[in-house]
Each structure stands twice: as structure tokens, then as C-alpha cells.
Write a structure and sequence with these properties.
127 residues; alpha+beta; 4-stranded mixed β-sheet; 39% helix; 18% strand
């Protein structure tokens, strides 16, 4: 009797994460965004952005934020918030997020509120 193929949880589970192709990795692209991108400051972070052909993002969390566990938690919070709110953008942009050193005091709800506010603002702009 043939063995029935069952869908494993990993196959049937939809991955809720930002695609790797959407992350900015090249040093040149990140430097261009830092130098020439438009800047928005919010509680706990600064966001640099510029119009683009496709959506892309980068997060820079320095060692000054603490150990790797703490830095990775900050990156996870921002990646999840960006993933959930990128639908608010009416046109593709490149964004770079720089958390400030006092980000430890800011909770995920605050980050989500600030990112959604900024994305709504960017979604309405025609720059």
C-alpha cells in the first residue's frame, strides 16, 4: 500500500516574513540612502527613505544597543512592523531604519503606531 503524502506543517504553513529580496544589503545603496534620502524622526528611531522602483528596507542596529540577543529583538520588532504596515505605502520606497539608543524604553505597540503613521504619510506623498 503506498504511503500517503501528508502536507507537513512546514509546507502548508505560509511564512509571514519579509522576502529576502526586499532587504537592502549593498553598502553603496545604504550609504546613498543615508546621504541623500529624506529623513523622518520618530519616537525611538529615525527613518530614511527615497522613492524606488521596488520596495526595499534595511535596519542598522549598532553594538551600542547591547548584546546580540537585544539587537536581534530590536530587528525582529522592526521587521514585523514593516511587514505588517508596508501595504499602507501607495508607491514603492527604499527605507532605512536606525533605532536610537533609548529604543529599549519603547514598546512594540509604540513602534507599530509610529511606523504606520510614517507609512501613511509616505503613502500620500508624491515625491
Amino acid at each position: 500500500m503506498p504511503k500517503e503524502e501528508k502536507d507537513s506543517p512546514s509546507r502548508s504553513h505560509v511564512r509571514n516574513k519579509l522576502p529576502r529580496r526586499e532587504s537592502l544589503k549593498r553598502h553603496r545603496d545604504i550609504q546613498k540612502l543615508l546621504r541623500h534620502g529624506k529623513r523622518v524622526s520618530a519616537q525611538g528611531f529615525r527613518l530614511f527613505w527615497e522613492p524606488a522602483e521596488t520596495f526595499a528596507y534595511a535596519l542598522i542596529v549598532s553594538r551600542k544597543h547591547g548584546n546580540a540577543v537585544h539587537r536581534n529583538r530590536i530587528k525582529r520588532l522592526f521587521r514585523e512592523t514593516i511587514r505588517l504596515n508596508k501595504k499602507l505605502l501607495s508607491h514603492p520606497v527604499r527605507i532605512l531604519v536606525l533605532p536610537s539608543l533609548d529604543i529599549g524604553e519603547v514598546v512594540a505597540i509604540d513602534i507599530d503606531a509610529e511606523i504606520s503613521r510614517i507609512f501613511k504619510k509616505l503613502g500620500g506623498s508624491s515625491d
